[in-house]
Amino acid sequence: MNILNLKYTHRVILLGIGVLLQACSQQSASTYLQIPQPAEMTIQAGEPFIIDERTTVVYPAGENKLPQGVLACISEMEKHIGMTFRKSAGEKNLKNCILLKYNNALPAEGFRLKINADSVVVEAKDASATFYASQWLKQSLLLQRKAPFVLSAIELEDYPEMSYRGAMLDVSRHFFTVEQVKRFIDLLAMHRLNYFHWHLTDDQGWRIEIKKYPELTRVGAWKDADNGRYGGFYTQEEIKEVIDYAKERAITIIPEIDLPGHTTAALAAYPQLGCTGGPYKVSMDRGGVHKDVLCMGKEFSRLFVEDILTEVATLFPSPYLHIGGDEVPRDRWKACPDCQRAIRRYGLKNTERESAEDLLQGEFNRQMALYLKSLGKKMIGWDEVLSDNIDPETVIMSWRGLGRGVKAIKQGHSVIFSSNGHFYLNNYQTVNMENEPAATGGLVPMQKLYDAEIITPEITEKDVERILGAEACLWTSYVPDNETLDYMMLPRLAAFAEVAWCGNRRKDYSDFLERLPVMLDLYRENGFGYAPHFFEIEAGYQPDIKNKRLKVTLKTLEGTNVYYTLDGSDPTCKSSKYTAPVYVSDDAHLKAIAYTPSGLCSDTLEKDISINKATFADIKLLTNPSKRYTGNNGTVLVDGVRSMAFHTTGLWVGYNPHPLQAVIDLGSAQSVKQVCLSSLTDMSSYIMGIESIRIALSADGKEFREVASRTWTAPEARMEGKRLEILELNFEEEQARYVKVTANGFDALPPGHSGAGSPPFLFVDEIEIY
């Protein structure tokens, strides 16, 4: 299916989901949005507040106009309801009014709402809280289709647990216009996120105008593409426009200038910045790690960086400035005389934990942190900037798992959690990737995001003070437009917003899903699309060797009903209802689906069960797999079920650096002529596939004779995506009881790969014998 047809399919699916939700969960006119879930909300007895042409908005005391963000909300309300509110200063008339006032006793960014038949009273701690409360009222009205527009009597108090609630947009891989960036900011504002991390530079393009270095945008913002020149950048005036737009919506923009790696675009513009002098070209890759980085031994590199940071710091009022610092290869520095002189000048020497080149980047980071302090800014860096010589006030953005954030906290750093395994929205959101837009490798279903534990038992009360908050990231390697952006972000951003706003006071995932349909309705009302991936069914497959059958268990959210079929037909509420394990002894095509009480449906679980001579046989692994990927001691290799192309499903056996060697006991002598193995290649995850397979047969399990062997060529270093292959070996038919399978991986990741020279993983799934 091509991408255009795929996108059309998604639109049809979303339309169908919208109709289903409206049919299954008709809401009253005064239904309130509860994502993020309020800290306290009580429905009161009494008549609702009815909006009409006499309704007056009363300014906060001491002010003669509404804050700009509140004014924007009021304007959208007026447009939706088709009438204009009266405006008034001071608390003169508390009848038929929306009264705004400040209350210093509330928590930071906190607000309180009291609604009855006479008035809507909004108390807010600060300007941000006033915007959030006004937006909440606006969203409540947008959910109503026609007059009369009413607000049910309630009392509500809300405030965020995390002071930093951010989202990142990468505009380097794919350029987004000013209007598209504003649309992204609207999404953040809708979810009460207060920081926009703008990833402005990378190997694939330099997107911000720097007055002192015009070649950065004249050369570095563009690259050759199949359909002509591709790229773009923002002028400083456009940047100011976006900053003002975000400020009106209670959002602070943090710019990122990625240094000293991911700088190919800068090197293309100013080759003298590199160790080799070039020539360099703006990268055509969607991502990856490039060996050419800024030279750390040249005076021009230091002056260049300081000049850029000065212009950027002057432009952005944010207290933070992000310098990247991730994925910086040391290859050029090791061979560069200038860098080696710098290492000697700083007195840097190899330690048990870090090389002199590692410490060279640490010295660069330390100097940049001090320079940014002189500009009134605090430095943020990805977790690779952690080193023995880093400035202790540097804020760490932990992307390589939650654990690195904990490590940074223990070293005394303030931390923003942005774990790629939990908060990267460019990752796949379902294992059914064949019908999904291309994504970046990993798997982050919405429930995994929602259930992310940031405050773990090892974090003390003192440690909690160093947790600034969390950030959701969208890298745009495969996100070229608004439609794809919506599909990747929504509704996962709603789950993230609740993690960041509610913290540990959030309830369980089932409760979140019960409140989600109203949020989906709001997306549709505002013209945003979303993915129909709400929750999944987890299947367990246990071979029953004695009875020659497969035990299938289905697990999903409590309170849902699961229905299944075994003949490949689509399950409905009239299909078999799952109440106990299902046993399968013949070929089957399992499909299952579950429904929540609110009408949301799960992703369809679909799995072929293929019975062959190896299925349910005794298997013995002769080599030890990786401790994380044992595949239940190899039984997943003979359960009749092939995994999806994700190595984390539990259905793969993973090896590094050993080969797979297994002996399968068929139970009796049988005719054998073919052996098949499932193999996974995913270069982004250092998984390189199978290099060779050997098959040997035996009648007694002691003496084996090789009957077939086959080799395969290595994948390209920059191979994109995942590849699941069924590898076949055919040979002359003969009798055997025991089959020995040996699968060898490749020796090392190839040149051009970020892990070149390291042993790759070997992942094997189902072994079939015919």
Verbal overview:
With 770 residues, this protein is α/β, with parallel strands linked by helices. It is built from 17 helices and 36 strands. Strands 16-11-10-21-20-19-18-17 form an eight-stranded parallel β-sheet. Strands 29, 30, 31, 32, 33, 34, 35 and 36 form an eight-stranded antiparallel β-sheet that branches. It has a seven-stranded mixed β-sheet with strand order 1-9-6-7-5-3-4, covered by helices on one side. Strand 12 and strand 13 (205-206) form a beta hairpin. The longest helix is centred in the N-terminal third of the chain and has 22 residues, at 3-24. The radius of gyration is 29 Å and the shape is globular.
Key words describing this protein structure:
about 25% strand; alpha/beta; about 775 residues; globular; single chain; disordered N terminus
In a nutshell, what does this entry contain?
With 770 residues, this protein is an alpha/beta fold. The protein is built from 17 helices and 36 strands.
Q: SS-based structural class?
A: alpha/beta
Q: What's the shape?
A: globular
Cα separation of the termini: 32 Å
Unreliable segments (pLDDT under 50, ≥5 consecutive)? 1-30
Could you tell me the number of beta strands? Answer: 36
* Biggest sheet features: 8 strands, parallel
Number of helices: 17
Tell me the Rg in angstroms.
29 Å
Beta fraction: 25-35%
Average pLDDT: 92
The strand order across the widest sheet is: 16-11-10-21-20-19-18-17
